[in-house]
């Protein structure tokens, strides 16, 4: 979506001219439902339109593509207009996310005699209509499908890890088939990894599937850092388990491997610190 907004801003003047010229050339002073409905054929990207009087009161039902409006009338639209400065009887908004649909749209307002014609256009469909992008809607739906599959797959994997931690500790309590330290640390490692994977899946679904909001600057880096911290914690715990095993078994010759593991975690922490500093600058 960020790329779509960049394309829109780059071609904003031509897009606004296309919309306003076509509205002016096709509109009449009658503004009947039959006439207004024809705009859906003129603009494939048009999603909704309605008309208000010069006091910003909507007395006729708004027209929605492939849907019927059942909202009670009249509707006071003054809130819609008070945030917008209409110069020369026309206004084109910047792209924004619609509360009702969750899609990115632009709003066009055109004054017709003593009435205001308000129209909402889907940004991706508009860019497709003008050949600035191709197959944009298909691309977004395909991305959402794959992100959803991966996100819910991560949820399932995190649930399996947490279940494994519960079964591991439960097995120790019932059968004493391992030491308390080993069972405890294994459970902690599994829960920590499960939590990290769950958090990764949650952020993936939130930002790419459900809300499709523009990510805040640095947000992707913060999600990645949180995930890596969980991995570092899990590896550190595994290193402690390894050291305890060496101490209990008195196989001190294996202490070299434990040293390599702890050294690797230390390098991981240093690299993460550098990455975090660079991502903030």
Automatic annotation (TrEMBL):
The chain crosses the membrane at residues 145-167, 225-249, 255-275. Keywords: Membrane, Transmembrane, Transmembrane helix. It comes from Sulfurimonas hongkongensis. This is N-linked glycosylation glycosyltransferase PglG.
